[in-house]
Structures are given as structure tokens and as C-alpha cells.
């Protein structure tokens, strides 16, 4: 058996974590031979609820669960952490403007970025789930100058999975038949789900659907899926978000499937003309514990327009908190 790795999870008493923690402890994220120590961070008023979650984790008797830490101190939660899933965030309250939301989260994610910088393993892999995920990841990254910016990522895998299922259902196939789909840009309603390079059971996806369905049905359905879940369930996506977080980290750590792409919000190196330094979702492949942006994807005018619009939103989000960025 390998020696245990430390996995920090913030917002650990929240609804996404209630699904996420149990699957990590069951070995679904890092493999069936990798013991884990869960280092769970919450705000002080939620420590009681977190204790209950830890009791349930105990009661699962997971063979791979090598230890647990419950804390409201970020320096403790990120101590020697090899992985971090930043799930906890400030939700939008009544009357709160988008700018207020960005600022409230900037305060949280700058403090957590510093705590990661000061305490975590220098090889830590960070996934930001809490919204606005891309900009929160940017803020954490900018506050962690001693850590390679490539180690901070944001989650667009849920959007990727949603898009795969919409396309599989439309074409009467299964998600196993869908390959090389991309979510470009921000995890928000400006994201661009692109199927121009996607195949379904080996056939070019665009030849199986018409442009009107693509533009007027598929793209808005994927972009608005989070809101549709809230309408139907009365609460935001939780198990599916946890599942996407597991897939993102699993692929990053253990490698993505041969011949396919995954969507990850990653540090832009300027690929496809996207401003360097933004955390932007690109088509990626993962190998040997590292990700790379798939190069050479051909783009038509429709795609470049959509990619630019979501880039502009990310620039605006960054500019709204620029006074808080080091
Ligand atoms: P919950 O409100 O159920 O849980 C969030 C938890 O975070 C709470 O227990 C809260 O006490 C804790 N928290 C708040 N501030 C904290 C801090 N500074 N340090 C540590 N813990 C803190 O929300 P949940 O449904 O679990 O969603 C969590 C986040 O994921 C939200 O920001 C949500 O918008 C975001 N999502 C992101 C998705 C994505 O695809 N990137 C999809 C699902 C989800 O909407």
C-alpha cells in the first residue's frame, strides 16, 4: 500500500462536500491503492455540522481513510496538502450585486491562496469549485507566488459532462460514443460548449445535428443547466458537481482517457489568443500528473466570437477585483 496523501477540502460541511468526501475516501479520486488523509476546512459556525460529517466518515470504515482533520484554520487545513478542492464560497445574498459577490469571494480566496503558499506541498494540485470558480482560482493563484501557476485550476468538467449527455441523447447514442468535446472559457452562462471537433460513434457531430439546434437549444441548455437544476430541485447541483470534481482530479492525477479531451479551467499561456494569465477553460489532456492544452484545434468565426465573449467576461471579473490582487 502507498503512503497516505493529504487532501484539503474547503466548505466541507456543505452539500457538494457531502457527496465528494465519501467518494474521495472510497478511492474514486486517487485510486483504490491510495490512502488519503482528509483535511476539512469550514467556517467556525459550521464546525458542529462538520463534526457530524466526520462521524459519518468514521462510520463508513473506509479502508483507505488514513486520517481526518476538522478545522476552521486555513493554515491547518492546507498543512502539507498534496491536493486541495476549494468548494466553500460565499453565495450571493439578497440584494448583493455581482461586484459585491466577487469582492466577498476575493477576500476568501486570497486568504486561502496565501495559506496554500505558506503551508501546502509545493507540488499541490488545486481545483476551485466555489463560484465564480475561474476568478476565485485566479485570486488564489496570484496569492501563492511560490507555487507554479499551472497548479491552480477551475472546474468546468460539470459543464463538459452536461454537454456530452445532451449530445448523446440528441443523437440516440451513449456518452461512451462522444469524444473530443470542449468547454471554452468561464464557468458561467458565457461559456462556449463547442462540438465542431466532436465525434459521436466516429461520426462528425455537426453532421448529425442542425445548426439551429446547436445554437438555440444545445448551447443555451448547457449554459443554463445549473439554473434548471435549481428550479427543479430547489437546490443547486451537488452530487453531479462532486462527481465532476472527482473526474477532474482523477484525470489530472492519473491521466485522461487516450484519444479524448477533457475541459479544465487552467492558466492561459496565450494559446488560441486568450490573454496569458487568465484561468480559462481549454481542451486538455492529462498525463503523468500534468495537463497540457490541446493545440491546433481549428476555429471558425462563430467559435472565435464566442471564445472572445467569455474571455471578455473573465477580464471584467478580474478587473473588478484588481485592487485586491497582488
Ligand atoms: P453550500 O452552501 O451547501 O456549502 C458551502 C460551504 O462552504 C458551507 O458549509 C459554508 O459554511 C462553507 N464556507 C463558506 N465560506 C467558507 C470559507 N471561507 N472557508 C471554508 N468554508 C467556507 O454550497 P455547495 O452547494 O456545496 O456549493 C459550493 C460552491 O460550489 C458554491 O460556490 C457553488 O456556486 C459552487 N458550484 C460550482 C460548480 C462548478 O461547476 N464549478 C457547480 C456546482 C456549484 O454551483
TrEMBL record:
Q: Which residues form the signal peptide?
A: none
Provide the Lactate/malate dehydrogenase N-terminal domain boundaries.
5-150
Recite the UniProt keywords alphabetically. Answer: NAD, Oxidoreductase, Tricarboxylic acid cycle
Q: Where is the Lactate/malate dehydrogenase C-terminal domain?
A: 156-321
- As recorded in UniProt, its EC number(s) are 1.1.1.37
Q: Which domain of life is it from?
A: Bacteria
The reaction(s) catalysed by this protein are:
(S)-malate + NAD(+) = oxaloacetate + NADH + H(+)
> Which residue spans adopt a coiled-coil conformation according to this UniProt entry?
none
Any one Pfam family here would be Ldh_1_C
Q: Which residues bind NAD(+)?
A: 11-17, 105, 112, 129-131
* InterPro entries reported in the protein's UniProt record: L-lactate/malate_DH, Lactate/malate_DH_C, Lactate/malate_DH_N, Lactate_DH/Glyco_Ohase_4_C, Malate_DH_AS, Malate_DH_type2, NAD(P)-bd_dom_sf
Q: What does the UniProt function comment say about this protein?
A: Catalyzes the reversible oxidation of malate to oxaloacetate.
- Xref: NCBIfam families: MalateDH-SF1, PRK05442.1
How is this protein named in the record? Malate dehydrogenase
Classification of source organism: Bacteria, Pseudomonadati, Pseudomonadota, Gammaproteobacteria, Cellvibrionales
Amino acid at each position: 500500500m502507498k503512503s497516505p496523501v493529504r487532501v484539503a477540502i474547503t466548505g466541507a460541511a456543505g452539500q457538494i462536500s457531502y457527496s465528494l468526501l465519501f467518494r474521495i475516501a472510497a478511492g474514486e479520486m486517487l485510486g483504490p491503492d491510495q490512502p488519503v488523509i482528509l483535511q476539512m476546512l469550514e467556517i467556525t459556525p459550521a464546525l458542529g455540522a462538520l463534526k457530524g460529517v466526520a462521524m459519518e466518515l468514521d462510520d463508513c470504515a473506509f479502508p483507505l481513510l488514513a486520517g481526518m482533520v476538522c478545522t476552521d484554520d486555513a493554515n491547518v487545513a492546507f498543512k502539507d496538502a498534496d491536493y486541495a478542492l476549494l468548494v466553500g464560497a460565499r453565495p450571493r445574498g439578497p440584494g448583493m450585486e455581482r461586484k459585491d459577490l466577487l469582492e466577498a469571494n476575493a477576500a476568501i480566496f486570497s486568504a486561502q491562496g496565501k495559506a496554500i503558499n505558506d503551508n501546502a506541498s509545493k507540488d499541490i494540485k488545486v481545483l476551485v469549485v466555489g463560484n465564480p470558480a475561474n476568478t476565485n482560482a485566479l485570486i488564489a493563484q496570484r496569492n501563492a507566488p511560490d507555487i507554479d501557476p499551472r497548479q491552480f485550476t477551475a472546474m468546468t468538467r460539470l459543464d463538459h459532462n452536461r454537454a456530452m449527455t445532451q449530445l448523446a441523447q440528441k443523437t440516440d447514442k451513449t456518452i461512451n460514443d462522444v469524444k473530443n468535446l470542449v468547454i471554452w472559457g468561464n464557468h458561467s452562462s458565457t461559456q462556449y460548449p463547442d462540438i465542431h471537433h466532436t465525434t459521436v460513434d466516429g461520426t462528425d457531430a455537426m453532421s448529425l445535428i442542425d445548426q439551429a439546434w446547436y445554437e438555440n437549444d444545445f448551447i443555451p441548455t448547457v449554459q443554463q443547466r445549473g439554473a434548471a437544476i435549481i428550479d427543479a430541485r430547489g437546490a443547486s447541483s451537488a452530487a453531479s458537481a462532486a462527481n465532476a470534481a472527482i473526474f477532474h482530479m482523477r484525470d489530472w492525477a492519473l491521466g485522461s482517457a487516450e484519444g479524448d479531451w477533457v475541459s479544465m479551467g487552467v492558466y492561459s499561456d496565450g494559446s488560441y489568443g486568450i490573454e496569458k494569465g487568465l484561468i480559462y477553460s481549454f481542451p486538455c489532456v492529462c498525463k503523468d500528473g500534468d495537463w497540457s492544452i490541446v493545440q491546433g484545434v481549428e476555429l471558425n468565426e462563430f467559435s472565435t466570437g464566442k471564445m472572445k465573449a467569455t474571455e471578455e467576461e473573465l477580464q471584467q471579473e478580474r478587473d473588478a477585483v484588481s485592487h485586491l490582487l497582488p
